[in-house]
Amino acid sequence: MKKTILIATLATAAAAWILRPVTQAQSADEAGVRQTVGYYFQGHATGNGDFFKKAFHPEAKLFFIREGRFSQLTSEEYIARATGKPASDEAQRKRSIESIDISGDAATAKIVLDYPSVRFTDYMSLLKIDGEWKIVNKTFYANRKAGS
User: Fold this and answer.
1) How high does pLDDT run on average in the chain?
2) What is the tens place of the pLDDT at every residue in 80-114?
3) Based on the structure, what is the number of domains in the chain?
4) What are phi and psi of 105, to 5 degrees?
5) Per-residue pLDDT at 55
6) Which of 51, 101, 134, 143 could lock onto 57 through a cystine, CB 3.0 to 4.6 A?
7) Tell me, what CATH number does 37's domain have?
């Protein structure tokens, strides 16, 4: 019985030691993805396009359905819409990361922007480029709230 417990303990310790570098790399990558999404959130919160520039790759595209039609913007067009100041209802706005999935140099993030009149669900595709995570693709759905 003691030998079985010892073998199980050694196997668990060995597995933890073997998986440790992977876990550390995943933690660093997750932190990098969260930082990039944080820039995106700061762009929305402040209206400052410089935060969006930190988040998006210059060749990123945004895809969505507007009035029943497929629509798209370049990241440059999207960033140009930044007003330079927070929205008047900024204090009522909530932003959250619902999920992050990372595989090597590719990641996805599901993000919710819950505003008084609309709830946006964003799906971001990110790539680790030259050591930095950048949003390369954004698709989103805007769910208008009742009375808006």
Assistant:
1) 88
2) 999 999 999 999 999 999 999 999 999 999 999 99
3) 1
4) -95, 10
5) 98
6) 134
7) 3.10.450.50
